[in-house]
Design a protein that fits this description.
Length: 133
Amino acid sequence: MANYVPFVRTGNLLFVSGQVCFDPAGKLIAKGKLGAGVSIEDGAAAARGCAVNLLAQVKAALGDLDKVARVVRLGGFINSAPDFLDGPKVLNGASDLMVAAFGDKGRHARTTVGVASLPADAAVEVEGVFEVA
């Protein structure tokens, strides 16, 4: 889609580019704006899908998720109606998955930003930073 790579490792940090909420078949889990047709529950499911895609990129980079020492940070972008204020509830879908996958190593810093649009009209996009062994 653009001029970038899916991940970059520098030292013991792995930066994973933003992943939109495509399911394994390549279909968007949720399309459109939160607060204007997409529910918080559907948005959280989309964020969970983004997190699955992040982990797929981590595995591609490292060969094994056991090499993750810690999830450092997630950045979430929520395709939002102007008055939508519940972006953090949406991004919990991704955060909860990281904690489920890694336990305490999955607890992370986080930023949630509402945006006017996302690629393919995806409801959610999530990027991540991981400490690796």
